[in-house]
Amino acid sequence: MRGLIEAEPVPGDGRGKRYRLTTLGEELRGPLLELARWGMRFLSDNDTDGISRGAWGFLAVQAMMHGVDVPPDVTETYEFRVDQDVFGVHLADGRATAVRGQVVDPAIVVHTDANTFIKIGAEILTPFEAVVSGALRIVGDTAAAQRCARLLGLSQPADVALTSN
After folding, report:
1. Measured between alpha carbons, how far is 9 from 122 in angstroms, rounded to an integer?
2. Strand pairing partners for 91?
């Protein structure tokens, strides 16, 4: 597609193809994440009910943290379990990187469903409201949860929102 994506063979599958962005395509990541971040404020309850997917949480997190300053002295990882999807955010050297799958030794683990996750990202629901309703559970270090909330531009979850296991 005009040098934006390229196909490569899937290892072990002679007919399968995997598509990935080229260097030129990667240049679109920033503007697309900014567009997604901008558009999240227009979501309503009707937009999120029944149509959210856990995998969209990964995109939402990337959009929410795009362009945000990361403290250079913080090195930690956050894990998100959204429905059956698992992804994380790793902070190091003043950068935040989103990663698919489980992470090693997360400072916090966030458990929720896709609908709740998107509502929090769209600021339809605060993390505190989601915790009180039972739709969100955060396990781990309180200070890390607060740093994560700041990174994602969210109102901070109350300390009571955290559990020890």
Report:
1. 37
2. 76, 96
